[in-house]
Design a protein that fits this description.
Blueprint: H1 3-65, H2 69-87, H3 89-110, H4 119-135, H5 141-154, H6 165-169
Helix pairs in contact: 1-2, 1-3, 1-4, 1-5, 3-4
């Protein structure tokens, strides 16, 4: 093999390896992002359920006394339940769980250490990632930046992303 052919092969291998690492990073990011979204909606649903149970019990107790407070508690319960219906926390949990599982499947495909990947393999993985992204609701930018920073740390990379306390606290909303 001539020097020029060897150099071309090395460049080809390097480009393939860089693409593989980029895909693995994207998949890791997707797994972590959707795990956090799933967890957020599960927690939100639990809090709403717990508060609704607490306030509905208090409303019944107070209504027996004939107090106005019972009406306020009942109204609060109705508001919490309406919030849960509008946000549709259960469906959000299932959606993010399904998307996370799809990313885990892609991760499994890309994690065979003994496999020699080809551009065809990476094209398939890239197409699977794009299909998964089509199912995703709009991405929360601050959460994505938070997850990117976390993923960089997990992979031992230096992250240049800096988030202020507001971005961290409200990452699930913007």
């Amino acid at each position: 093999m001539s020097h020029s052919n060897q150099s071309s092969q090395e460049q080809f291998d390097k480009a393939l390896n860089n693409r593989l690492e980029d895909l693995r990073y994207n998949v890791e990011l997707g797994i972590r992002y959707h795990m956090l979204r799933q967890s957020f909606f599960q927690s939100l649903h639990r809090w709403i359920t717990a508060l609704s149970l607490t306030f509905s019990t208090a409303a019944v107790a107070v209504l027996f006394d004939g107090s106005e407070l019972g009406k306020w508690f009942a109204g609060l319960v109705a508001g919490l339940q309406a919030l849960d219906l509008v946000v549709d926390t259960r469906s959000q949990v299932e959606l993010h769980n399904d998307i996370r599982r799809d990313y885990l499947s892609i991760n499994k495909f890309l994690s065979h250490s003994s496999k020699e990947y080809t551009h065809i393999d990476l094209d398939k993985a890239s197409d699977d990632i794009k299909d998964n992204e089509l199912k995703e609701p709009p991405v929360k930018r601050w959460l994505l930046e938070y997850v990117a920073r976390d993923t960089d740390s997990f992979l031992g990379k230096d992250s240049t992303l800096k988030l202020n306390w507001g971005q961290v606290m409200f990452r699930h909303f913007w």
